[in-house]
Design goal:
Layout: H1 2-19, E1 35-37, E2 40-42, E3 54-58, E4 80-82, E5 89-91, E6 96-101, E7 106-110, E8 121-129, E9 137-142, E10 155-159, E11 164-171, E12 175-184, E13 190-198, E14 201-206, E15 209-215, E16 230-232, E17 243-252, H2 258-269, E18 288-292, E19 314-317, E20 327-329, E21 334-339, E22 343-346, E23 356-364, E24 375-381, E25 385-390, E26 394-399, E27 403-406, E28 416-422, E29 428-432, E30 435-440, E31 450-451, E32 462-471, H3 477-488, E33 504-508, E34 515-516, E35 521-522, E36 532-533, E37 542-544, E38 549-554, E39 560-561, E40 573-582, E41 589-593, E42 603-607, E43 613-617, E44 624-627, E45 634-643, E46 652-656, E47 659-660, E48 664-665, E49 683-685, E50 687-689, E51 693-695, E52 697-706, H4 712-723, E53 743-747, E54 768-771, E55 778-780, E56 785-789, E57 794-797, E58 809-817, E59 823-827, E60 838-842, E61 848-854, E62 857-862, E63 873-879, E64 883-888, E65 891-897, E66 909-911, E67 923-931, H5 937-947
Antiparallel strand pairs: 1-2, 3-17, 4-7, 5-6, 6-17, 7-16, 8-13, 8-17, 9-10, 9-16, 10-11, 11-12, 13-14, 14-15, 18-32, 19-22, 20-21, 21-32, 22-31, 23-28, 23-32, 24-25, 24-31, 25-26, 26-27, 28-29, 29-30, 33-52, 34-35, 35-36, 37-38, 38-52, 39-49, 40-45, 40-52, 41-42, 41-49, 42-43, 43-44, 44-48, ...
Amino acid sequence: MAEEKIQLSRSRMRKKILSVVFLLILNSILLIPYSVSAGTLNKPSNLLVLNTGLVGWWTMDGKNTINNISDSSGQGNTGYLFGQISTTTSLGKIGQAVNFDGVDDYVSVSSGSMLVTSDDWTASTWIRSTGNAGNYRVAFANGDAVGGGGGRAGFQMGITSSQKFFVATIVGADSEEETLSLSSASLDTWYHLVVRKSGTDSSVYVNGVLDKSATLSSATMDNTGNDLNTLIGVASGNSDPWNGSIDDVRIYNRVLTSTEIRQLYNMGAASKSNISPTASSTPTTSGLTGYWKMDNQNLISNVADSSGQGNTGYLVLGAGGTTATTTVTGRPGQALSFDGNDDEVRISGPALTGAHSVSMWIYPTADPSGCASNACALFALRNTAGFVWVDSNQIGYFGNFVTDAISGSLSLNTWYHIVATVDSGGNSTLYINNAIVDTGTNFPAYTPDVIGGDDVNNQTFTGSIDEVRVYNRVLSAAEIRGLYAYGAFGHSSNLSQKPLTNGLVGYWTFDGKDTDWSTRTFNDVSGNNNLGTTTTLTQSSAVLGKIGQAMNFDGADDYVDAGTISSLAGVNKATISSWAYRSSASNIISLGESPTTNARYRFGYQWYSDDNIYCVAENGTLAYNHVAGHAETGWHHILVAYDGTLSNNDRCQIYFDGVLQTMTSDGHTLATSLASGGDQYPFEIGRQYADPEAYSTGRIDDVRVYNRALSSTEIRQLYNMGATTKVNASPVVTSGIGLNRGLVGYWTFDGKNMIQNVADSSGQGNTGYLLDQISTTTVVGKIGQAVLFDDATYVTADDSTSLDITGTITMVAWIKPTSSHQGQVITKYNLQSVNMPWDIQVWDDNLIYTAVKTNNGFVEVPSSGAITYGQWLHVVTVYDGTNIILYLNGVEDNSLPQTGTIETNDFDLEIGGASGNGTDFIGSLDDVRIYNRALSATEILQLYNLGR
């Protein structure tokens, strides 16, 4: 009967809601830095109008350059970096800028579409050119506005080969019309450049002042070209690359006034970076004998030493430890997170026998009480000397743990730059954040052997470490100030790269979005329509890959036939790239062009059970060579580089994990060109004819075929795409900070959190227990792994005080429903309960419903429209004490008023179902969170962007 009452009240409420839906329109307000005084950014009150018509705004600042270039306009036009690494940020005109090398660095904002298609528009940016003075340099391109032969569109702006500022605009019917400035640009100088189109007027503003106006032949933009891309730092087709720095890029779909343009200029012209003018933006390398950046590209299977001295660090990560992908945002770039349990990096030097300096950034998240003698090793010789996190949250630089320099107490969850210098007489000086805090004497020689922990002596640090540097001399105060400035304002991290597409003639990701199990086909995302087909692989063959999803081949009869790749016919250069996983050295991995008979027209590779990887390049006769000594298991990147123009043994080469291998000749003459016509055979993944056929046993992912030779840089880039990809890894939680503040439940469903149960990563101990499931019911999620639910499975977490929320609440989940079936996503409710305090669920009317019950009654909010089954949807419910607000994919969808204190009960929390009432969710759920506070719209968008 209680169940009937609730169901009836829900039905009545829905009818009322559908007749009185309120649309809440909020004007987003962007606070724009204007001037800096004494290190504080002031926010102007008279510049809010500058947000009107803003469709893209890329500040290039550290906080917006974590995995890409965030769009601060609120329009979600994220920029993706090509060619850059995490250290390519520098001091800008307003905060940070991004550096471009004039070769292959650029930012792709949109591919195949332009952000602005209106006839009137304005674009603004700060630019500083440092090279390529004899060429055109494009700072921003909205379309392809240069070149001949038609098909041009949009506009682009930058500096010409004669050092004039320019805007090239395509109007009418493919008419390219260029407006050049009167003034000229100098190298190594910041300029504020604004280009504006108003009707037939084309204007160029330099440093806030109108420099040149021209009359266009038409007021109508031509937006129907071939390369409708929006790019920063390059023109379409990767032409006219920028060499220098770019900062604060904006584009508007309206005409800015001269006053507004002057205001934009003043924001940068009056801005003073809060870094000492004497500080170098590039830290000194003189005397550098050890340098561990902790950035992703330096964390492949160890921690690379970027000093050039070869002091490689080795990750030691125990059963309770993490993996090499536990990188977090650092100072600058990425940092390595240590769990305080058994994580450490082992090094072997350099020996510090005289004058030296050690510099590093640390972020402690726990006091030293968990370490033996209240001393956690940061950079040290075990139990002897070096940097330690000690006693009452202090930093010490200890020698023989007798003579030392030590700081006062520091705060947790805060970044600190620590430097110790020791002169030739053994006199030590300790700096914290560019200030001297203590000195010592008689410091001994030592050779450091650990970073981040000493698990032998139970002295492992809990927190993050970044930018560890060692010098064989005493750094000056100015140099230390420069190191501090470099990290204090350089926060970018893991700038991502997009796939290489030039010459790509076949590309099979095996990801869910590129797989159609109804026809058992795998899409060729190169655009060449080399569709992969299978008759043996099934949906259960899909497993977690190195980049997204992979296929698991059984070694008996599994393979994918991609047909004949016509673009390989008769070529003398080609490349095959793939990720392969073997669980045993006896397993075989095979792929390439493969006849089903003993015909000698093969091209590909076989990683065989004899520990050899064979590179095959035939055109009528038996022809292969090999690299020996590869008994590895696990994931590895294998790339075949074929060049028929080279000498015989160099024609077919193997790169293993990005490194060129030494090939061994097998006495064959390799083909000078690949087969063509009737001699060409299908490209097969998972099988290659080897008398008899050799089927693969293991996983294969991200297979690419090129009809050209790749450079060593491109090969390394392909390897780094997978080596640094955080598959199966959700964000690390630091309690009380940012999106972790108020977090009382966080179930990632990732592999490391799915051993026998579902770990709660919030730190509140609300462990979830799998009912009618086992840990293998995980699937590829939006952030790492997800859990697949049917109509009889769910996860339950015991009732706890942290889940008895009475004030404000936020519920978060990624959902992928696959059936039109009423199913609970999150709830504290079961068959016997009439006191259901809050929930989110999918109903069989194809709507999302969310409810909060307070002492003032029960209110339920429906989504404004039907959901799409089989697609991921980010769902957030916020109760802020005044309203219940439903957000879908980061945007407010619907809301209703609600007030009062949330009611509580003693029922368990349930995810994916409600025990006893038949409302179990069907589909996948990922990254479920509960907060005991109301998240802001900005925070909700951040959560959504984590999984985009």
